[in-house]
Amino acid sequence: MRTGPLPFHSEGNPSMTTTTPSEHDHQVERGTAAGSVRTTTFDSGHQVPEGQVLGPVRAGDAVVMIGASGSGKSSLLAGVQDQVVSLDRLRALISAAGDQSATADAILLQHQLLTMRLSRGRTTYIDNVSSLSHHRRHLVDLAHAHGRRAVALWVDTPVETSVQRNALRPDHLRVPEDVLREQHREIGDAAELLELLRVEGFDEILHHRST
User: Fold this and answer.
1) What's the CA gap between 86 and 71, in Å, rounded?
2) What is the mean pLDDT of each run of 10 residues along the chain (211 residues)?
3) Is 0.70 topped by the overall pTM?
């Protein structure tokens, strides 16, 4: 299993390099009412060559991370922290890390930041749980309103792995286990979620399977 951050696209390099899926990976293209949407599934056991990109992320994309707390989303984004917008980070800026009472203000600030970045064509990774369809649809609509592609990146991690990782977090950052399990239930299984993401209007869907 790959433990380090994935080498995502860098805004400083306008070209995009993609990995060639291994025999453990597969790509599926299906037509939807909105056109053809490519879904790419990556197995975390496949070692991605250094300097290559996991998936077709392009300069200017809005990449919506999807995954329960403890799924490993933030770890995957370790190399692109200057391109990440997350409610957790905004809560900490507004009040304190883990302060859920700051969520409403964090959502307002997130919308403003996304509008600013998307209007400038800056690649942006939105690092939230994004377990609910209407939250994701809002982000897709925002990206499209600025002429940007919306890319879903689902970090598909078993619930028990998420629970174990969450238990190692400091008290003020630990998510109640019942909340974490509910996040997994809201996201649903692979077949259900991947079809829903197509309907929601995403231009690309990346499915990163972890263990």
Assistant:
1) 15
2) 40 31 35 64 59 66 96 88 94 92 95 98 96 97 98 95 95 93 94 94 92 82
3) yes
